[in-house]
UniProtKB/TrEMBL annotation:
<dbReference type="InterPro" id="IPR018713">
    <property type="entry name" value="MPAB/Lcp_cat_dom"/>
</dbReference>
<feature type="domain" description="ER-bound oxygenase mpaB/mpaB'/Rubber oxygenase catalytic">
    <location>
        <begin position="23"/>
        <end position="258"/>
    </location>
</feature>
<dbReference type="GO" id="GO:0016491">
    <property type="term" value="F:oxidoreductase activity"/>
</dbReference>
<dbReference type="Pfam" id="PF09995">
    <property type="entry name" value="MPAB_Lcp_cat"/>
</dbReference>
<protein>
    <recommendedName>
        <fullName>ER-bound oxygenase mpaB/mpaB'/Rubber oxygenase catalytic domain-containing protein</fullName>
    </recommendedName>
</protein>
Length: 290
């Protein structure tokens, strides 16, 4: 395993364009629903799973960690000049994350192939979330545009172009090889996907009082979305169960989401950083995106 840290391949930050596909989908509520599937695919890589198991606070502070992760993703897309600073912050944060995985193999969080896989998981999950929760699946042209924008995010994060496939056509053989050769049901992946995971209560007092009743509903719903919005081959590699009945339920849920989310006012439909970026874009005459 290489120990070289990821490096930038372009000068200056190069975030996705205003009005692009990521601009439209990354800050909407539907992106939050897809996040558990991508995170579980990430930690199914033994090196990533070991790093999260040994260094993350996801067990003791899952709500804080989730909030920080969401803010980070939003900065990559909507942060403008802050995107590059966020990329540098993440690389500094991961510099000291290293150790031995469950198989006794040394790992480093900034190993280029490991760092690239964490980023790569977002692309197939965006496609699958769009298929189930969006108005319609992406066209082939839109899939290529989305992948090009995702590569730009990777450069912001300091991922070497050589570690990411350069096109959609090259991505899928890389993805299938990673799923086949690297993914496994790591302890953290199983924990994140468990319908009875021991999740501590969130901060607000009313929710804390109701959490004994709400926790089983929340963890089952999270497990349902985790498996449902994950590509089937990754789901199988991790050992997650899926049935025809669950598939029907996911399709019905997607229909409801497609009706309800577009009717929400912008302040409820979009996350805070996305709302502010859209406001600035309108003020600058660039519009809120498609």
């Amino acid at each position: 395993m290489s120990t070289q840290s990821p490096r930038r391949t372009t000068e200056g930050h190069d975030p996705p364009p205003v009005g692009g596909i990521l601009w439209t989908v990354a800050g909407e509520l539907r992106s939050v629903l897809a996040l558990p599937a991508a995170m579980t695919m990430q930690v199914a890589h033994p090196a990533v799973g070991a790093g999260v198991d040994q260094y993350s606070v996801f067990r003791t502070d899952p709500w804080g960690r989730g909030e920080r992760s969401l803010r980070s993703v939003q900065l990559w897309v909507y942060g403008g000049p802050e995107a590059e600073a966020e990329g540098r912050r993440l690389r500094r944060l991961h510099t000291s994350i290293q150790g031995v995985d469950a198989h006794g193999r040394p790992y480093r969080a900034l190993d280029p192939s490991v760092y690239a896989w964490v980023h790569a998981t977002g692309y197939p999950v965006y496609l699958r979330a769009q298929r189930y929760l969006g108005t319609r699946p992406f066209t082939a042209a839109e899939e290529r545009r989305l992948y090009g924008e995702w590569l730009r995010v990777g450069r912001v994060l300091g991922i070497d172009d050589r570690e990411m496939p350069g096109s959609v056509e090259e991505f899928w053989p890389y993805y299938r090889a990673m799923v086949r050769e690297r993914l496994e049901p790591t302890a953290v992946a199983r924990e994140l996907a468990a319908p009875d995971a021991p999740v501590p209560p969130p901060g607000p007092p009313p929710l804390r009082l109701l959490w004994p009743l709400l926790r089983p509903l929340f963890t089952r719903f999270r497990a349902f979305l985790t498996a449902g919005l994950m590509p089937p081959d990754a789901r199988e590699a991790i050992g997650l169960r899926w049935t025809r009945e669950r598939e029907r339920r996911l399709r019905w849920f997607g229909r409801a989401v497609r009706v309800v989310v577009p009717l929400l006012p912008e302040r409820l439909r979009y996350l805070p950083l996305a709302r502010e970026a859209r406001r600035r874009a309108r003020a600058g005459g660039r519009g809120p995106g498609p």
